[in-house]
Records
---
Amino acid sequence: MAASNHLFKENYTVSRQEREQLNGHTSFTIWLTGFSGSGKSTIAAALDQWFYKRQIRSYITDGDNTRMHLNSDLDFSREGRKENIRRVAEVARLFNDAGIVVVSSFISPFEEDRITAKAIVGAAHFVEVYISTPLEKCISRDTKGLYAKAKKGEIKDLTGIDSPYEVPSNPDIVVDTTIDTIEASLQIITDWLLENKLQAVAELKL
């Protein structure tokens, strides 16, 4: 008998809407996708600071940190990547249910996995941000030295070298850090959020 047959959903008395009301803002997930070196982590940190200064409760989840702990048992095979995204999407959903804004920074190269993440979080609470910085620029930056290692054969299945990246078909926001500075990228994203997701905090000093 499947383990799921022995599970029962608990419905607690404090709702997500009540937690959002307590916090003074809605909760949702901002999903940053793009090549390694595209600027995802830097933009995630800038967003987190922006939220903090405006008393908006937020938290960052990123590929390296989750793979060091929560997903330390996963490899970078197709199945390992798929499970990695499934797990972090479930974490984002839980944070959102607690009334917290999540900034998820993951290469997440496959469209199928991003669609799965959106379904888990909930389409109404999922903001896909494509960091469209070209691969050539990311390789020239090589901020973590991963591309150099991949070219030497020290790393397998690195996105952009020997594993593909599928461009999002319909992202909510697109920024390119070869054109937009981090400050400009932050402005583009937060302008969209203020119009579409953060109406509840419009009265805060911005």
Note: The chain has eight helices and five strands.
---
Amino acid sequence: MALSLAEMKTEKSAPLPIAILYGVPKVGKTTLALEFPSPVYINTPGESPPNDLEVTTPGVIETFEQLLDFIGELIIEEHPYKTLVIDSLDGIEPLVWAQVCAQNGWGTLEDPGYGKGYIAADDVWREYMRAIEALAATGVWVVQIAHTEITRFDSPTSEPYSRYGIKLHKRASALVQEASSLIGFINYRATIKEKDVGFNKKVGRAEGSGERQIQLEERPGFIAGNRFGAPPSIVYKKGEGWNALAKYAAVQ
């Protein structure tokens, strides 16, 4: 059947409840993630929740197939959970690489040469994203925790500069960002004050009050964004993070 101008209609789609929360060490990424409604927590090797929080968890995810199986169970089975917290994206990456190597009979992702291993990994990452998108379509939040790395950004409109990014291979980072409706960068608020050191010379010094902010709109210094119409940044106070976000990003 052909499309027709006479049959035009207006539609509005809701963003899928998929988030990435990343930030500087010990800033409260996992704590914030666990404030989302009725969470179930899964962690990759080396990750753990804060000591002062109790979590509901099936245990450590050690293979890519275990990860997909658990997500599939959440999709199919009845359960009380409204949020899946995955700790962390950069912990999933070696599981993805191991899966690619097993599928292709490689010892490492470098074996095929010329970056072909990382290109092949795209398909496994897409398999993961199809799984979390299917889960999110049931109304369950998928909150992915990630660590930071500082990289050089070669802007086509300015001189190169450094920025915070998600600690993943650049191909994987681009894919998971595209699939996410909310990317929050959590950091401490800092102000720069000038101090006179004599001889008509001043130096800048960063000072902070300990206030934490969730950045939700991209700036030169970091990656962030959202499809919910949230403001550029939100003050994060422990125990109140989800309430601040839910004004904009609550699943209807």
Note: The CA atoms of residues 91 and 237 lie 26 Å apart.
